[in-house]
Amino acid sequence: MTFAVLPGAAAEFNNISFNSGASTVTFAMATNRLIWSGTLFVQGGAGATTLATGNLALTGGALTIGNGGVLTANASAVSVSNFTMTGGASGTLTLTTGAWTVTGNWDTSGAGSTLTAGTSAVTMTGAGTTVRILNASNGFAALTINGTVSAGSALTISGLVTVSGTLDTTVANYGLTIGGGLTVNGATGILRANASTVSVAGNVNVNNAAGYITSTAGGSWTASGSWTNSSTSGSWSFAAPITFNSSSSRTMTFGNPALEFGGNVTFNSGASTVTFTMAANSLDVGGTLTIAGGAGTTTLNTSGSNLAINAVTFVVDAGGALTANGSTITVTSIDTHLGTFTVGGSTVVVNASGGSINLTQTVNNLTVSPAISTTFTGSLTWTGTLVFTNAGTVAFGTSSLTSSGAATFTFASATITMSSGNWDTSSATTFTATSSSVTFSGTGNLRIGGSASFGALTVSGGTRTLQSQLTMAGLLALSGGTLAKGTNALTANAGLTMSGGALTSTSGGVTITGNVSIAAAASYIAFGSESWTVGGSWTNNSTSASWSIGTATVAFNASSAQTMTFAALPGNAPEFYNVTFNSGASTVTFTMTTNALAWSGTLTVQGGSGVTTLATNNLGLTGGSIVVSNAGVLAA
Q: Which residues of 481-511 are buried (b: 16+ CB within 10 A; e: fewer)?
């Protein structure tokens, strides 16, 4: 078939049909292209009718391949309006390297149809058009969308998909499977995938600030190449979960939308050992960010640019690794106990309440933002700066807290709870705890630095064993359990209350600036050989047989008048070994109420430049010796 070359590339035919009915016939083009203006039909009957282009061009209106029709277009350049291959029995289109431009619809969904795409490229340029194929075995080699195109079926493309116009899969949320990468191109590039399942083997590149992708939580994405997102469009909305699973290391240039990924993001390359390196911009995830692997290790590296990671939940799972460099990682929850966390100079920030923190590796810096409550489900060791300032409640449960090296710990105004974990912040060179409140409810050890001071401290259960001095700027409260101070010094600058529990000692001085109130009958103190100084009143309702005086000396040195309610211990047992009243330069009267004062060693009443008086209020004095010396008055 030698077709004409008419002036102005005019059409040689309006409609043209190749149909040999029962015969099997091939029409082979020679020399010139075929141009028509209406519809080109290729179809057969009992036999097959073939139009073989000889790599010559086809230019015209619509092109239809019917049952028994075969178009062997190979490397031909083809430009048509609509292309249809929807016969119910057969129809074949064979391409090699040809380039097709379709201004209308593409529909090769006919049962029994065969599309052999080779390495061809199809470009769809029309507005309001549809693309439909039969199945994954009859997909495109490469597809470019320059118009506005809706998917009418699941689409499979073995090569590159370029979207310079709009590709919309949302009519029925058809799947999109791409084997050679996805480019959302230019200012007009839009991919609306919504609840579709999208799989991209190759790179994803959104190369213009105005381009964007939409997906919803009902969708699902898998990408096996690099990710480059230049979009800053307010229309960007990516809520579908996405998994990055390359078999080789990749560079990830995340975008600048307000939230790039609204759903879950997973890095998991399975058997391959792969590093995903962040090249520009933070990684922002509105769901769970997971790094995991299989036989190989999958690593996310924030790079030397120290790019930030923001996620609601962050999990470094088995086979996963995070190289954090100097990045800031902002989360509600984080769990790295099954994976590898190379912390570098990074900072973890907890910015929302209700989460859990499980960082089994030694971290650098960690901050719980103001007014935020969180729970540590794993023990925490840090080397840099730990900040709980103005936080809500930070709960450690059975987890321990340990400083490493010259760390800094600031938890002013925070509330911290710990049950059976150990507290060891002895290496911290800066320890700021004013206005804080710490509660221990289970058995464990407590060690702080030599000059460190808590705000208020409560022991409510278990046995909390001191392994260093303990100083409170605020109140020391025992409501249950035991505070075992051993040989260590103890200072409480706002008093001591015991509504339950016990305080035991071997030695080491105790200073209480303020009142001592022992409200519970079952509470007790087991004194050692130490000296106590109490700067306020004394109220002791203990009737416990476990009260033990040791060989301690308790000195009361208040600067103002105080009321003293001593205990009525079983068998009239002594409350103190030695007891002293001495207010030095202050003139003070200590007035007894309710019970007698019982001691075993020496009762001393003395003053300094002021007068110290013990007024018994006609209550008894029972004990060893009594010494009333300079400026001391015993009003018995």
A: bbbbbeebbbbbbbbbbbbbbbbbbebbbbb
